């Protein structure tokens, strides 16, 4: 049985992340808790709405009720990227070359490393943003689809239309696919064909609840999702992705919903967090399960692996967080 080092934090903890081997926990109140030779606390926001790991740098990005977009370093240093008083920032994304994007109403903003800020306007409110794995290209999710923009060029916008509200967005690691979370209990995907400029639809339905967590496997062969009493894992290794294929269901527990999923950084192993605070590890190859943490006080809100894959940090809405050492 892996060992669990608990960390109790007052209130709702929004996210857990690793920067190197340092676990970091972000609270809804706006405090950042680091376990670095003891617990160290930094104030980042007056009310935090989102905190993500920047996939292009060893930092975190956060947005809050105070209208700030912040960059948080492994030593707890907080630097302000943008500040718009009286505007809530709940959507942030990290991009290549130090770029940072955030949404505010019907606009996406991208700040480049030289300080230039580009604004991209939409007809509907922007609900989520993601950077493509290569190049300064963003996907802005909104009502009835996604808009693809090349930042800083005059290239025409590409519209990916699908009726309904799209509340989250992610590119596959190779950039061939784009997948959104929807307000209805479904995912929707597009196969992006750069040669013809066309895109093909992928419908991923059948969830009993809204999908709020997605995670790609290390080489992008699998996309894991929450929103069911098992982790729903879609195959993306074929040229048409999951079209015509059924997903795997891992870690099934009767009537106990999965709230978070997180793939191991080096192996095809999935961490699954549940609404009752339990955390399971499941191997893709054979479905073998390992209990990583027994049920706790609240739903799992965040899962994050260390770079080595030996440690797994988890956060919960009740504040009972911790770090699991699976190396033993």
TrEMBL record:
Coiled-coil stretches: none
Gene3D superfamilies on file: YVTN repeat-like/Quinoprotein amine dehydrogenase (2.130.10.10)
Pfam family, one: PD40
Cited InterPro entries: Quinoprotein_ADH-like_sf (IPR011047), WD40 (IPR011659), WD40/YVTN_repeat-like_dom_sf (IPR015943)
UniProt name for this protein: WD40 repeat protein
């Amino acid at each position: 049985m892996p060992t669990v080092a608990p960390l109790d934090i007052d209130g709702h903890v929004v996210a857990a992340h690793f920067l190197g081997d340092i676990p970091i926990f972000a609270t809804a109140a706006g405090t950042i808790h680091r376990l670095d030779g003891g617990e160290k606390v930094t104030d980042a926001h007056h009310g935090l709405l989102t905190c993500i790991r920047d996939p292009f740098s060893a930092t975190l990005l956060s947005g809050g009720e105070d209208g700030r977009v912040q960059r948080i370093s492994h030593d707890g240093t907080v630097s302000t990227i943008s500040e718009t008083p009286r505007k809530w920032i709940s959507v942030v994304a990290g991009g290549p070359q130090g770029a940072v994007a955030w949404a505010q109403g019907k606009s996406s903003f991208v700040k480049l490393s030289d300080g230039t800020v580009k604004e991209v306007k939409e007809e509907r409110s922007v609900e989520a943003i993601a950077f493509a794995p290569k190049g300064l290209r963003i996907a802005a999710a909104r009502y009835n689809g996604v808009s693809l923009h090349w930042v800083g060029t005059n290239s025409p916008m590409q519209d990916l239309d699908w009726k309904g509200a799209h509340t989250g967005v992610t590119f596959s690691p190779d950039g061939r696919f784009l997948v959104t979370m929807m307000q209805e209990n479904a995912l929707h995907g597009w196969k992006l064909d750069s040669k013809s400029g066309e895109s093909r639809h992928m419908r991923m339905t059948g969830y009993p609840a809204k999908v709020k967590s997605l995670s790609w496997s290390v080489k992008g062969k699998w996309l894991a999702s929450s929103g069911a009493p098992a982790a729903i894992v879609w195959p993306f290794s074929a040229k048409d992705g999951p079209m015509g294929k059924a997903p795997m269901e891992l870690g099934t527990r009767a009537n106990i919903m999965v709230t978070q999923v997180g793939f191991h950084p080096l192996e095809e192993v999935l961490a699954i967090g549940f609404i009752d605070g339990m955390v399971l590890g499941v191997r893709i190859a054979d479905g073998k399960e390992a209990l990583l943490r027994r049920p706790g006080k609240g739903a799992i809100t965040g899962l994050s692996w260390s770079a080595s894959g030996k440690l797994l940090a988890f956060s919960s809405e009740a504040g009972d967080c911790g770090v699991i050492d699976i190396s033993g």
